[in-house]
Amino acid sequence: MLKYLLILAAAAAGGAAAAQVYKCKGPDGKVQFSDTLCKAAHTSEAVPDRMPVTRQQQSEAQQRARQMQDEAAALDQQPAATLNAGQDASRSSARQAEPQLTSPTPVANNEGADAERVRLCIRDVERQAGSQKLKAEMITACRTAGPVQRATGTSESAVSDCVKNVERTGAAGKVKARQIAICHGGDVPPEPLPPPRPRPTSITSCDRGGCWDDVGNRYNSGGGGTMFRNDGKACQKIGDMLQCN
C-alpha cells in the first residue's frame, strides 16, 4: 500500500502528462500499481486521471512524496533491537500475569525442630541415675526423637507429661532412663531378659565329704546347708535337691 501511495504521489508531482497509473495483474492473480507499462506477461489496465493537476497540487504532491519516502526509509533503518525489546517487554508482562506458586516449607525448619527434640531427650536422660553405659545407649536412642514426634504428631506437652509421670515413680534410675527416652520417641531396644535360673538337681548319693547329683556333678560340703559344686559354684541343699544360683 505504501508503494502504491508513493507511485500516486510521484505521478501527481509530475503533472497531468505523468499522472498515468497502470493497474497490473500478474499470472498469480496479484494486483500491483505502476507508473510504467506492465510486463508482457501481465494484464495491463490504465487507471484514468479524471482531474487536471494544478501547480499547487503538484508542489504539495512532491512534498508529500518526499515525506513518505523519508518515513519509509526510517522504517527500513529501524534497528532490530527495538523490536526485540518490545517482545521482551511482552514476555515479562505475561510472566508477571502468571500465578505465583507458593514456596514449599524449607527443609531447614524441620531439621531445626528435630534437633531441639533430640536435645531435650538427651537432657532428660542424663539427669537420671544409672550407669554411663546405659545413658550412652539411651542418648543414641534419642537420635530418633525428632522424626518420631513429627511423624506421630506428638505435642511437646504430651512428651513433658510422660516424662513427669515416669519421674514420679519409684523405679530404679536405669528403668526411668529407658522410659523417658521412650517418652521422647527414642528408638529404645528391648531390655534383655535375665538368663534363666538353673533348674535344681536331685541328690543321688552322699559320703562324708559331699554328694553327687543326677547329672554327675560333685558337691563338697561347706557347712550350714551350703555345698560347693566342682566348678566352684555355691549351691543350697534343700532336702534331696540342690539349688545353684
List keywords for this structure.
single chain, 245 residues, alpha+beta, six-stranded antiparallel beta barrel, three-stranded antiparallel sheet, 9 strands, rod-shaped
SSE layout:
Blueprint: H1 2-13, E1 21-25, E2 31-34, E3 43-47, H2 55-76, H3 80-97, H4 107-126, H5 132-141, H6 145-152, H7 156-168, H8 173-183, E4 201-206, E5 210-213, E6 218-223, E7 226-229, E8 234-238, E9 241-244
Q: Categorize the overall geometry.
A: rod-shaped
Total helical elements: 8
Strand order of the largest sheet: 4-5-6-7-8-9
Oligomer classification: single chain
Amount of beta strand: 15-25%
The helix content, as a percent range, equals: 40-55%
**Biggest sheet architecture:** 6 strands, antiparallel, barrel
The pLDDT mean sits at 77
**Could you spell the SSE succession in H and E letters?**
HEEEHHHHHHHEEEEEE
Q: Poorly predicted ranges (pLDDT <50, ≥5 residues)?
A: 11-18
Radius of gyration: 55 Å
Structural class: alpha+beta
Beta strands, count: 9
Distance between the termini: 117 Å
Brief write-up:
It contains 8 helices and 9 strands. The protein is α+β, with helices and mostly antiparallel strands and 245 residues long.
Please provide a written account of the structure.
With 245 residues, the protein is an alpha+beta fold. It has helices spanning 2-13, 55-76, 80-97, 107-126, 132-141, 145-152, 156-168, 173-183, and strands spanning 21-25, 31-34, 43-47, 201-206, 210-213, 218-223, 226-229, 234-238, 241-244. The chain has a 6-stranded antiparallel beta barrel with strand order 4-5-6-7-8-9. The protein has a 3-stranded antiparallel β-sheet with strand order 2-1-3, covered by helices on one side. A hairpin with a 4-residue loop joins strand 7 (226-229) and strand 8. Helix 1 runs antiparallel to helix 2. The longest helix has 22 residues, at 55-76. It is rod-shaped, with a radius of gyration of 55 Å. 17% of the residues are buried. Residues 11-18 have low confidence and may be disordered.
